[in-house]
Design goal:
The protein is mostly helical. The chain contains twelve helices and no strands. The chain is globular, with a radius of gyration of 20 Å.
Amino acid sequence: MTSLVSSTKRLRADVDDWGPSSERGRVVGVARLGQQLRALLARTMNPPLLHPAMSLDTTLLELAWTVAPVGVSVLVAVGDPRLAVATMAVLAAAAALASLRLPAAPSDGDGADGARRSGLALGPVLLRAALPSLALALVGGFAGGVLDTAVPPVLDASGSPASLAGVLFTGYSITSVVGGLIYGLRHWPGRIHRQAAALLAALCLVLLPAALVPSLPVIAVSIVAAGLFAAPQLTARSLTLQRDLPESAWSAGFSALYAANGAGYGLAGFAVAALLPLGAHFAFAVPLAVCIAAAVVVFLPSGTARS
């Protein structure tokens, strides 16, 4: 175990040695790539297949986040930390080669110049159209950040090792994959933005027992069960954005969605840190209540969103 921890520290040091500028560039590049691929998926799928395709996309992403840390730990434990980085590079190169076989997105009829004119002339209009999905992304990111930062102190305050958070988060990711597959198997009733808001509210409601009851079994069941709503609400808010924006704005819209999610995640750390002096459970429950209230607000104005 000591060897694994020290190897992981060496791996982190090796990554840090690449320099902050290059690391920022990689993060921006990966984020942009993911949103461009999602926009391409929205453009190339037949409308009846878009819902399951988006759900599968989110499910595969959740699966990667579940499997990758385990894979890195194994590679670091059985070999050299550089082996994990080399594996990542090989997989990225294979994905880049495979991307050459992706279909070309159909033209929107106006070409690149038309898309640029649309983005410049309709910026405020497009922003207003995207507000429901961007609000959901901000609140969803906030909920995810609260989960990640509040669970370890809650476990500690309940008399359980804070290190169990990793196990619980793994269970959360596994059930998220299951939930994503279930959500993609059929079309659900109601407008898509209301589905996204309802799923986000449900996720936070299911997490509330973990914030209110200082019992490890309750905390574990609550967190793992909440994962069932994680991937579906990500899919639903992406579909909301795709349906509320014209095709020429999808790439920019999905990038804004990613940015809003990240902003919410970052704000959660400040919120939990500010509330921790009042108690770990309080620092978990209050932000969750705020998320539920915000999701209800987004859920209400159904007349302004397209189904």
